[in-house]
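Write out the 3D structure for:
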Amino acid sequence: MRLLLDTDLFCKLGVADLLEEAFVSLGVLASDCARLPALLHMLRRGSLPKIYGVDACKALIPVAEGLGIIGSPDADWVDRLASVQYIDPGEAHLFAIAAQQSLSVLSGDKRALRALKDVAGYADALSGRIVVLESVLILLCERMGHSEVRCRLQPLIGKDTMLSICFSEGNADPVYALTSYYKDLEAEIHPLVLWKPKQGGLL
């Protein structure tokens, strides 16, 4: 296991039919990845069908079933996050396991990342290991072309502000806009260090 997936980005990339391409671009296999235990329940009966549609979530169930399940982190890493506002139990689980086992984590929760930057030990443990949607989409645009990525993201336009702005019909250069979002987030969450694309995949 090398990459932990948060539920939101699993769904966004899955609904856009970009999950497999994202794995290739990041240099990982599906067998290298793991998801939260609650994902299957959330795809079947949780809030996700209301956001992404029943059929879209149903189609993602076999994909989720093919991924590993994240184990339980040590209490020490979890306890540091227990009272931190804006970090929900699912994100706390992801961050704690990633910090404990030196894994990378694909996270789309920017409020959680802003809160995480001040938690003792996490900036060092997760340095260069936090993969955000902007960096994945930059890779995908370079690999597939931004026209193809824009086309696949259409089911998400209107559901995500960043995607709606970067991939609007009037924006001829999504990569420039994605890079701007990435750099803004990078500055906001210092001393946390985001993952940057490099030859050979994940750090």
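The first strand starts at residue 3 and ends at 5.
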